[in-house]
Amino acid sequence: MVKICCIGAGYVGGPTMAVIALKCPDIEVVVVDISEPRIAGWNSDHLPIYEPGLDDVVRQCRGRNLSFSTEVHRHVSDADIVFVSVNTPTKTCGLGAGKAADLTYWESAARMIADVSVSDKIVVEKSTVPVKTAEAIEKILSHNTHRRHGGGGGVRYQILSNPEFLAEGTAVADLLSPDRVLIGGRNDTPAGLAAVAALRDVYARWVPPDRILTTNLWSAELSKLAANAFLAQRISSVNAISALCEATGADVAQVAHSVGKDARIGPHFLSASVGFGGSCFQKDILNLVYICECYGLPEVASYWREVIRINDYQKGRFVNRVVASMFNTVAGKKVAVLGFAFKKDTGDTRETPAIDVCKGLLGDKAAVSIYDPQVTGEQVSRDLAMNKFDWDHPRHLQPITGTDVAGQVAVAADAYEAAREAHAVCILTEWDEFRGLDYKRMFDAMHKPAFIFDGRNVVDVAKLREIGFVVYSIGKPLDDWLKDMPAVA
Ligand SMILES: NC(=O)c1ccc[n+]([C@@H]2O[C@H](COP(=O)([O-])OP(=O)(O)OC[C@H]3O[C@@H](n4cnc5c(N)ncnc54)[C@H](O)[C@@H]3O)[C@@H](O)[C@H]2O)c1
Ligand SMILES: O=c1ccn([C@@H]2O[C@H](COP(=O)(O)OP(=O)(O)O[C@H]3O[C@H](CO)[C@@H](O)[C@H](O)[C@H]3O)[C@@H](O)[C@H]2O)c(=O)[nH]1
């Protein structure tokens, strides 16, 4: 029986391996991690991540051909194919700080593979990594193997790049029916070709052949960074236009619809928002920027950096709107925040725009009351007390070094509790339940004038104005109230 071992039981490793196990009953799949609580979670009825449909997949395979373990060395040693799906955070200090990928976890995984392997392995990059990482890994593996095996024969490795394109909230559907599976390998050597074929055979059990793309290693690595940069660029483009809509009276939803009708542009990923979040877009673009700088391409680097700048501008612009509309101060005022996750249908808060918006409001001394159906109070406190980029480390290694804002932040059990006696409501995640709330009930329990700042365009602006709210919705024609209160930083 072929054995697959995946190092890293996170948002990617867990769901990806569960679907491989589901579709390949003849392959033994083990997911290993250094984090005991995470593995315990995967072995329990409360999986460590919330993802629609995932419970069902895990339930079908766990104990059959899918298992989760902290016995990293044993399972890596036994495996034929080793996926590496560990954190690749942005560096926070030293060379490339604030941009370059920190490959500490990757390198330690690679060294561990070299240490424990006694049989040939295909090592698959699942983590998102800088271009040419495969070359670095090859060096680590081959040098260490040679040392252990006296310079001759020894264990042979083939490195493949197999970046993951799943989006959170739809991970299971994306994995079951991917737009494409990308496999990069050494397609100029027989061993390289054989490794690519072996991995292609795994996916071919359920992915149509025309959706399995094979490329050289560097194209696969770069395609992942480029795909995320293109996606994020679309959001920054529509968000930039949203600011112009507010200034001119155009409606960003109408503009995006009209633009997206052009078949060359397409309708997807054109929803204006308070800003994109998630563990990947910012990190991967910064990584791309750094790579461009390293290759002496400053113009290309600054082109992509602008995507992040517009995203930061959008989050800052939102906070400025809130504060400016409320007589230029929110000090001591209760502001309800509906939604803390970076998008709906996930409990993930990594790089969520809600963190920056809440920090902005707290900086202006607001009392923030947060409700999210999937995010715990403990997670909110951690996020607000953490410095930029520190979230992207295994949980037990995350430094909590930021300001403690516990006194100014409360977590509510539902949207109505969050909004009770508040001056304003900010909608920061597009959870479906926020579309169907009883806003009249909310209005009645709030201070007047009552404000709604919709960072996701989920509310019916006309209806809310009828109730009596002052409404701001990203990129929509402004209330007279807001026109008279320009937000200047
Ligand atoms: N989250 C996504 O939607 C997504 C999608 C595509 C690609 N990616 C990329 O996939 C990689 C993993 O992302 P994630 O969201 O799953 O991260 P994650 O933090 O959820 O999971 C990573 C796991 O790796 C474990 N780990 C770290 N070092 C280890 C080691 N040496 N040995 C064993 N376990 C180790 C950590 O404890 C953690 O549980 C990143 O490179 C990310 O950029 C993420
Ligand atoms: O029109 C849109 C679409 C998305 N977003 C925001 O963009 C962020 C990212 O959303 P999404 O891409 O759906 O989720 P991720 O899970 O971050 O997935 C992205 O990042 C993953 C990690 O690399 C990739 O695998 C996926 O292909 C890529 O979509 C979220 O904050 C969304 O709210 C918008 O503001 N407007």
TrEMBL record:
The active site is at C280. Keywords: NAD, Oxidoreductase. The keyword ATP-binding does not apply. SMART domains: UDPG_MGDP_dh_C. NAD(+) binds at residues 8-13, 33, 38, 86-90, 127-128, 168, 280-283, 350. It is an enzyme of class 1 (oxidoreductase). GO terms for molecular function: NAD binding; UDP-glucose 6-dehydrogenase activity. Pathway: Nucleotide-sugar biosynthesis; UDP-alpha-D-glucuronate biosynthesis; UDP-alpha-D-glucuronate from UDP-alpha-D-glucose: step 1/1. It comes from the Eukaryota. GO terms for biological process: glycosaminoglycan biosynthetic process; UDP-glucuronate biosynthetic process. Pfam families: UDPG_MGDP_dh, UDPG_MGDP_dh_C, UDPG_MGDP_dh_N. Residues 336-461 form the UDP-glucose/GDP-mannose dehydrogenase C-terminal domain. GO terms for cellular component: nucleus. Its EC number is 1.1.1.22. It catalyses: UDP-alpha-D-glucose + 2 NAD(+) + H2O = UDP-alpha-D-glucuronate + 2 NADH + 3 H(+). Belongs to the UDP-glucose/GDP-mannose dehydrogenase family. Involved in the biosynthesis of UDP-glucuronic acid (UDP-GlcA), providing nucleotide sugars for cell-wall polymers. This is UDP-glucose 6-dehydrogenase. It comes from Digitaria exilis.
